[in-house]
From TrEMBL, chain A:
Reaction(s) catalysed (UniProt annotation): n isopentenyl diphosphate + (2E,6E)-farnesyl diphosphate = a di-trans,poly-cis-polyprenyl diphosphate + n diphosphate
Swiss-Prot/TrEMBL cofactor(s): Mg(2+)
EC number: 2.5.1.87
Compartment(s): Endoplasmic reticulum membrane
Pathway entry: Protein modification; protein glycosylation
Enzyme class: transferase
Entry protein name: ditrans,polycis-polyprenyl diphosphate synthase [(2E,6E)-farnesyldiphosphate specific]
UniProtKB/TrEMBL annotation, chain B:
Entry-linked PANTHER family: ALKYL TRANSFERASE, DEHYDRODOLICHYL DIPHOSPHATE SYNTHASE FAMILY MEMBER
The protein, known as: Alkyl transferase
PROSITE patterns (UniProt xref): UPP_SYNTHASE
Coiled coil spans: none
Organism per entry: Hibiscus sabdariffa (roselle)
Function: Catalyzes cis-prenyl chain elongation to produce the polyprenyl backbone of dolichol, a glycosyl carrier-lipid required for the biosynthesis of several classes of glycoprotein.
Keywords: Transferase
Pathway in which the depicted protein is active: Protein modification; protein glycosylation
Amino acid sequence: MDKLSKKGGFPNLSSPEVFLFPFSPLLLQGLTPSLLCCLCLNRSMDFTRPKRMLYFWIDKIRNVLLRLSWHLVHAIINLCYFTMGMVHGLESHLISRGLLRKYKSLHISKIHYLAIVIESEDACRTSNVIELLQWLAALGIKHVSLYDNEGLLKKSKDIILEKFNGAVLFQDTHENNVLLDQPQMTLEFVSFSDGKEAVARAANVLLMKYIKSGGTGSNQGEQIFTESQMSEALKTVGSGGPEPDLLLIYGPARCHLGFPAWRMRYTEIQHMGPLTCMTYGSLIKAIYRFTTVRQNYGK
Amino acid sequence: MEHFTLNHHGKGEEGEEEEEVDETLPLGLRREAIPRHVAVIMDGNRRWARSRDLHVRSGYEAGARSLRTIVELCCKWGIKVLSVFAFSSDNWFRPKVEVELLMSLFERGMQEDTGIFLRENIRISVIGDLAKLPEALQELILNLEETTKNNTHFQLIVAVSYSGQYDVVQACQRLALKAKHGLVEPGDIDTSLIEQELETNCSEFPHPDLLIRTSGEFRISNFMLWQLAYTELFFAQSLWPDFGEAEFLKALLAFQQRQRRYGG
């Protein structure tokens, strides 16, 4: 009542005392339609609070369900990868035992040059490297390039050559782009310095020749250098090895970690997983797959 | 393929007044693991046509549709750059009729999609030995690059008449010209100077994070040889015209797995 008199006949709509008004005999006697409207409005505004709470909890539950779905999808994906890993492991075991017929005869002659890329963290595991080389030798692979980004394999070169009887260094056997037929396996040790850095050194060689020749070809569009000139320059700086037919990557990431890119235009690339998980069966499978490939070379 | 809108931070109702772009990610993808630059070797168009007893033209047209789909998905999922190997230096040795067909398809595609590139704020860059292309196509490319050069939402790099070895040689050539004009000292060429002159320097992110090659072939075929040193390689079995959202998602998830293994 006081609030009515103070406010000039209109109640304070936010006041809880307004709820009492419907029960006041004075109100029952003197309520105007507009006042009734105000009361209804006040009641509906108070009803929005539970509604807001309801929307809040619906939103919360929705977010929780979405997150659970997201985690479920991830779990399913991880399970798929795990299952695939188990299947590959089993297949590799069967191949190693010679139980799968199609892998028994490999056309090894298709592989003239094989490259192995090893993650630098595993490059110091010389026993694994030697075991891998022994497998390759047993299969009849004659020419192998060993690469790791940091050059750790280069540092272990002497140990590897000593423990792997009969292997010779690549540069002693390579003449005029032809891989000489050797009874022993040839090994090439390669690192990042033979990749991009070698291209930079070769570019300097080409530049020197260009300047000495008087620098003809002054327009931007004219061809100053050719790809074969770059190949020759790479040989000059000692990084002109042949293009591998097949490159096997032993590491956690499916990338070639900077293997001399100039040499891998048409190289088949296979990711083998970490070196510590290498198996004879997976090696056979990779080589078999390569021997079934047919390349068009873009034509 | 159905996917949900997921705000990864559980927020979104208040206070996030950032981009207007709708970055809807499929369930399973983490926003922070989305690659910035994806490269694609679009292989398998001819095989796709042959398997359906269609003319090779149909294969290339289906391939173009597939490319549009992937561009849309890249824009939607927040990938900033897509490079596609459309025509290699070796492809010039294909039958003349087929080469002319491809050139006409490039020309038509660029003309028809110019409006889309402008509307969607897409920048187009074309890399490769463009001097070998028909003059009309060269002019169209130059105009399109100029018209879209200030677009910032997404960049599509199309490699035409391109090879990785060509890219390295032309970079060395540019450096030779700079040396001739005294801008570079002989003997000072190093890997970073070469990188600056590669044709992919047209991009803010010149090195692909992920390379996808379709049609089940496991090689890079002279594409971006320099730039792919640390790129995750994903070899998809499907032919390019069949490569759609599901396969693309698979490739991105594989890249995501590498992020977990390698942290790279």
